[in-house]
Amino acid sequence: xxxxxxxxxxxxxxxxxxxxxxxxxxxxxxxxxxxxxxxxxxxxxxxxxxxxxxxxxxxxxxxxxxxxxxxxxxxxxxxxxxxxxxxxxxxxxxxxxxxxxxxxxxx
Length: 107
Hints:
Elements: H1 2-15, H2 21-32, H3 37-44, H4 48-69, H5 71-106
Helix pairs in contact: 1-2, 1-4, 2-4, 3-4
């Protein structure tokens, strides 16, 4: 469940400008503010089922946007590449420090 929530939050970050104001409000309250369906339904004076249906439809739309635009996928690839480069720099620095220590021991 946490993985789904994290994924939806990322998709929402990337594609929220493509949603209607009502969809944005429901998604913000449900996923970002952790409101329950009942709390959202009371806030907007609609049925709990209407909120549920809207959120599920919006989730589906976000997944469709991702299938077409791949913004989240590209983001994950960039993050992976950045981490790879950071690890490589860290490894190189450790090797450099080790080499310098060896040089100091020789002196």
